[in-house]
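job 3f2a | input accepted
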Amino acid sequence: MIGLLDETTLNSQLPFSVSPQPHTMRRAHLYIELVAAGEQISLTPPHIKPITRSGFTVIELGAYVQH
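job 3f2a | predicted structure (67 res):
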């Protein structure tokens, strides 16, 4: 199962700062949980906002695997 952690959660659990302050900053972290073979799960597609880059842009990508 794969999900997308929201930026509010990321900012509170994993604070991140860059100097100088970027004009545009986007953080995207996936949450990956292993599922047993044949297990039925229901997934809701995440809403991913398009990235509009302006000036100095920082994009952070990450993934967390739950065993």
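job 3f2a | The first helix runs from residue 7 to 13.
job 3f2a | closed
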